[in-house]
Each structure stands twice: as structure tokens, then as C-alpha cells.
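Researcher: I'd like a structural prediction for the single chain below. Treat it as a standalone chain; there are no partners to consider.
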Amino acid sequence: MQSRVLAILIAVVLALVATAAMVVYVNGADRRALSGQKPVYVWVATKPIPMGTSGEDAQNREMIDRVPVASSAALKGRVLSPDQLKNRYAAVNIVPDEQLLLERWVGAQDVGGRGLLPIPEGHQAVSIGVDVVRQVAGFVTPGDHVNVAVTMPEGERGDQTQYVLQDVQILAVGATALTRSSTQANGGRVNQGKGSQTLTAVTLAVADKDVKPVIFAAEKGSIYLTLLPPNAEAPTGSKGKAANESDIFGGP
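Model: Treating it as a single chain, here is the predicted structure.
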């Protein structure tokens, strides 16, 4: 019995020694591959980068990193700095450990779908009409993230303003949005509060569960967009208390 236990222990020790020797050999092979060559640093994907991901998001979400490789392995046309990815989007799906090539990152106008960024899984593209003031004076562009607030009539309580969406991506901006009433009444000019404004179609990536509330808000309420900074964290709590007239003028 003791001899059998001893044989098992010896076998385990030999297996561990063999594994350690293999690791040493592989590491040595890597060093030998780099010997005689000056290593260079390249930017690679550290995790899958879906098509349509912005360069800023890829960097902020730690999807890319700089690693050393043999000079002979560095690809021509590679990304030399994350600054080159500003205002660019992945034109294809990029797999982990793939070197970043500048030709695979394009402007929003070159992304498939005539400027419409890819729709994330579990989302739908929904367009709403927003005048230039309510879309941050026109500074909202594809790839940006915004909050969507809506002011709705609330009967005896008066009008109330509440977020209907938070941290939602802009897929496209463009085309003049004409409501049914505006088409019939004033030839494409839409009244929103005081004066008239031409509405612009802003296309949002809306989660499946939020599509109907967004459409209802666009049909019945007045929508306002707020622009988020590139590194803003997605909200984890509620959308907060609705605002009404008493928040401005005080309660009774």
C-alpha cells in the first residue's frame, strides 16, 4: 500500500516538473524570438470590439492596450496612438489580440447604413424630432451619449418633467422630421413653445423595453436632450423625482 502511494506521489512530482519545464521553454522561446530584434509597441484589442464602437469608448472601457512585439510582427498601417481613433468607429468586429489598423476605423459617415451606427443587441433604432435648441444647439453627433427628458401634462398637478431615458447612444442625426400636424398646418415648421423651429431627426439606440415609452413621449410630450461627457458612468439608480412648477417657484 505504501509503495503504491509513493508511486503516485512520484508521478505527481514528475508531472509538475514537466509542466514547469514547458513554461520555462515557452518563455525562453519568446525571448529568443525577440533576441536580435528591437521590440516595438503596438496597440491591440484586449477584448472583442463590436463594429460601430467609437475609439473613445474602446479606450475608456479598456478594450485596447499597448504591448511589445518583435519589429517583424508589427503590421504596416497600425494605430500608433489612441489620438488617431478620435471621432472614428470600428468598421468591423475586432477580435482580442488583433493589432489595431487605422483602416479598420472610419468616420461616422463611412459606417454601414448611410451614417447610421450599428444597433446594439437588444435595442431598436427610434427617431425623434428635436429642434436645434433641444439637441444641445446642434452639438449632438452620432456616437454621443445623451439623457432624454420629457415634459408631459399631468392634469391637476400641472406639467412635469422627467427622464424617460438615461445614457442612450445617438445612432444618427439628420433629415428634417415633419409631424403630421406640421405637415398639414405650416409646411414643415413645428411650434414648440414660443415661436417655430424646424425639427431634426435624432435616431437613438433604445432598449426594447423602452421603445413604447419613448414613442409615447415623442407623440404627447416635449422632448429635451442633454449631452453626457465621453467618460460618464451609466446610471445605476432610479431616474429621480420629476420636476414641476413648485421646484422653480416653491411650494404653496
